Amino acid sequence: MKHGGIVGIMVVLLFGTAALWWGSDGFTTFTAESARRLDVARSPRPLPAVALEDQRGETVAFEDFAGKVVLLNFVYTRCTTICTVLGSEFEQLRDEIEHSELEGRVVLVTLTFDPEHDGPKQLARYAERYGGADATWHFVRAPSMDDTRRLLRAMDVVVVADGFGGFVHNAAIHVIDPRGRLVRIVDSDAIGEALALARELA
Description:
- This protein is an alpha+beta fold.
- It is built from six helices and ten strands.
- The chain has two domains: 3-41, no CATH class; 46-201, Glutaredoxin, CATH 3.40.30.10.
């Protein structure tokens, strides 16, 4: 290969590496999910003021949890796969919270993104699978799809119909600080990390 060809290849590789560095935030971001988490960690996001409805049909809002840390996940109650796992993981979190100094300072919120199918009765049945709702764990929905979409957009949660009546969606624990800001997103099974963050923020 001629010298000019080698130089050309090296230039292309150099520019390609530079573009990858810039586009991946210094090689730290290679997926949309990791980009979402990095952006939230760097720039906490206030949540939109949305009226929610719980499994009893009563109105609640994120403002009701002001001064507390909120650990939030997204589900839809007809899901028999990942949402079942998410429920079991939050059940473990509740047990940890209620047997520690975090009781009364940290709450769990499970929010359905499928309000057209998930009304209070469906939320109550889902809650009963894991011992029911209590002062620590709340099961809610935004009754309108517009408000549901506002919440999903605020947290960059992606929900895609799977073609079989269900959905593919992000599975994570969203950490909301006592000021009502989304400050971190961690893996759904990272219970220890979520509790450590809650202790730091509470």
